[in-house]
Specification:
12 strands; Hypothetical Oxidoreductase Yiak, Chain: A, domain 1; alpha+beta; homodimer; about 15% strand
């Protein structure tokens, strides 16, 4: 089933107004959720509304919190999110980084006491929209099992990077685990087995069965099950590299901000998430017009590379751009379970379910 | 066989003086080579001297080139290496980044027209020695096959990161391919098969046999064989993430510097390598003493994590620190083939081979 993106956007906005968010804030959340589904990232769009609903119901998200700059220099800032909605805090922090980059060339902003902020790529793309290079990352409750370990200890700790390019931004957005938590959830909803070593039990047994009983513990740090780092669970496949990338994320998020590190975050508690945002003006390296045009040529060379039969060499952002064109024309793809969740939340909040 | 590190250091210094390098430059190269072997990274220590010898003989490395800052702002610089020795250019560039970070909080330096610069981690650790956070990366002649592709197109594009910690720096240093080119060479020298999908032929066939005829083409961009990105060669295992990390390296090295991108580099030509160096003063996020002490605690928690039988959870830099203690006490580990190469170079340059 396909759902008109503008109608979904307005529905989400109404839900967020019904929670009690300011109209502008509800609109900003709806923009970000719809942006995510429009770009084909179903795991982090409306699929996430039931999780946010749980957080809002539990009082974990403060509807009226205002993000605050608690420390800054011309090239940096630390923001306290005061446990507000992650999307609102994230947008504030990336805009701060962008302003600093426009003045000083570089802006690095670390955030503490936030909540789940959606896709990291949204913020990196805000920088690219402003003609800058952008990075964003966030920590999370534990999901990643460090190499040789048994329990998850670090977050899935995604890193996003964006840079202006034609015909669309170069956009790289990835969990430092082999796949994000949301992808495992989507496969379980679709009753599909995992095609690779995404989930590891007892530190040695990859789980592929989407019905495996071990999966019940996947969000519990005490259970001997969790996600493999990018690079799998052996050093021969590069496990220590994904684990190391997650460490860099912990440093730029929890450590620089003085906020929670991933092992200190749990879904049920008031231990906020930490984020990082970086904007860089390429003009600090000289003539950025030449740089951008050379980059466009380089991307075209990549797309023209010989590929294995039936496939092609993509540039990061190509698939998201194709999904955007499709969703804009044909509507968002929302699975039945997720749609049912939205209906249930709407009923509780007394918001009309729109006709599609 | 073990070889006293100070004796090896002085030997390397004499060789570089015999090539015609200034005494201070010869000492700097010897420091860096010995540093690498002392930390157990045999693939990039004296093992690399025969490759540098080939480059010097071929006139690819200009012995008297002086690195030059051709563009700068308070937070950035572009350095032209004028095709000098990569180690000397890299040290100059990281010191420039460190000075800028001390003044402005952040220093980002991109380098063009350099040569192979040894291990990226050496430069990241220079920043950590100065109390800062350091990054370094470099591009290289092509080695990495982009996801769905058949030919190598990007470099092995390593990324290094270091941060001060106790009892030793946190130090992460990894190729964005599953393994660096040097690791494949070491396995072939040892006549060992590859334990994972490091090498890919025809875009679909992982090569494990160290004697496979396809390996003859591994350094030729025209041959349908090359290295898999970190994450392997399928999207299910995260191939596009390693490929994406290499793209970030290309942007920070070749693109920002206006120098060669990896597909433009080949061993035999005067198309210099491009590097990137970043130093960040953690004090731009507030009280760095608290940050460092919290980081030390975090690393200790990681080391104390339950591990699979017979293994342990390492922190990045632990293995290098253990190797350093061992090599300092017992001497460097140099394989017979490499030692014979050094003897041959010494004879040609009329440098005495020291007694061990």
């Amino acid at each position: 089933m396909r759902y008109d993106s503008q109608t979904v956007h307005d529905w989400v906005q109404q839900l967020y107004e019904a929670y009690g968010f300011e109209a502008g804030d509800a609109q900003a959340v709806a923009n970000m959720i719809t942006y995510t589904d429009l770009h084909g990232i179903a795991s982090h769009g409306v699929q996430r509304l039931s999780m946010y609903d749980r957080f809002i119901q539990a009082g974990k998200i403060d509807l009226h919190a205002q993000p605050e700059i608690v420390f800054e220099t011309p090239v940096s800032a630390v923001v306290d999110g005061h446990l507000g909605m992650g999307q609102l805090i994230g947008t504030f922090a990336m805009n701060t980084a962008i302003q600093k980059a426009k003045t000083s060339g570089v802006g690095i902003v670390s955030v503490r006491n936030s909540n789940h902020y959606g896709i990291a790529g949204y913020y990196a793309n805000l920088a690219a929209d402003a003609g800058l290079i952008g990075f964003s990352s966030t920590n999370s409750n534990p999901g990643l099992i460090p190499t040789n370990g048994i329990h998850s200890f670090l977050g899935t700790d995604p890193i996003a990077f964006a840079m202006p390019a034609k015909p669309h931004h170069f956009w790289l957005d990835f969990a430092t685990t082999t796949v994000p938590q949301g992808k495992v959830e989507v496969y379980r909803k679709l009753e599909k087995d995992f095609p690779a070593d995404w989930v590891l039990a007892d530190g040695t047994r990859p789980i592929h069965d989407h019905n495996a009983p071990e999966l019940a513990g996947i969000r519990q740090q005490s259970a001997p099950v969790g996600l493999t780092p990018l690079g799998g669970f052996t050093e021969a496949t590069g496990s220590h590299k994904g684990y190391g990338l997650a460490m860099i994320v912990e440093i730029f998020t929890g450590l620089f901000s003085g906020g929670a590190l991933s092992p200190e975050i749990s879904d049920g508690q008031h231990a906020g998430t930490s984020h990082s945002f970086i904007a860089i003006d390429p003009a600090i390296f000289g003539d950025s017009r030449t740089m951008f045009s050379r980059f466009d040529d380089f991307l075209q060379q990549l797309r023209a590379q010989p590929a294995v039969a039936g496939k092609q060499v993509y540039v990061h952002g190509d698939k998201e751009a194709a999904a955007y064109a499709d969703r804009k024309a044909n509507g968002l793809v929302i699975d039945d379970k997720t749609f049912a969740e939205l209906v249930k939340i709407s009923q509780r909040l007394q918001v009309d379910v729109p006709e599609f």
